[in-house]
Amino acid sequence: GGFYPLTMAAYEAFRQCGGRDTYDALHDLQLELEKARQADKADDLVDEDGNGVADVEELDAKALVRRKSTLLLTATDPDKVDRGFQGVYSAWLAVIAVLKVEFAQMIALGAAIGDFLAALLKVPVTRIVVHLVNDDLKKWIPQSITYVCKFVAIIVAWYIQHIITTFYSAVRGGLLVTRNLMRIVGRHCRACAVDPDQSYLDEVTGWLLAACGFYFQYQLGFHPPFLVAILLWPFAITEAGLLWAITRAPEVEAG
Hints:
By secondary structure, this protein is an all-alpha fold. 76% of the residues lie in helices and 0% in strands.
């Protein structure tokens, strides 16, 4: 979570904004894709003229594309495909909307704190800097102080958001690991079985594990080690894609 905060936030937004419905939509798409694949395999074996050569082998590229396109449309259910794509697209929009709001809140909070800092520091800092710059540049001193304060405050806000995300992911991961380990042990050893819903053991061990995970990420400065970064390269790509989406994607108009 501390290494890839946007990915963690996107997962939580996905889980809270109808993640189960999206899984069902993906399942429907998978079933329709499998139906299309089976129909395609059967079509590759069709030899209607009985000359010993499959019909698809005798078609030119244009005719083959037309035949396969018709087969795809015939073999799949348009309603299920439409619901599947709508479910996935709706989940994507929900995740991006949540991340954009969180990102905007962080920027707005940092900018507001920067304004407070600028109001506090503008006079004393100006009295010092005014002796260090040329007369032609003195008019830029107040604005420069404001921009620097906003920039520093936004960086601090981003860092605090990193800490919050790291803490959340550490707690969630610690409890998830502990509870699943308890269930696995319970299945293999009835005498050692402990119900996580009836015991505080999972909370105690989970929070201890969460503390270790948080400290580990904090010590690394919220940057994964080189080998870990290589193993987790898909998350790095996802993080970059989400950052691009929330900073570049156009606003979705209501209605």
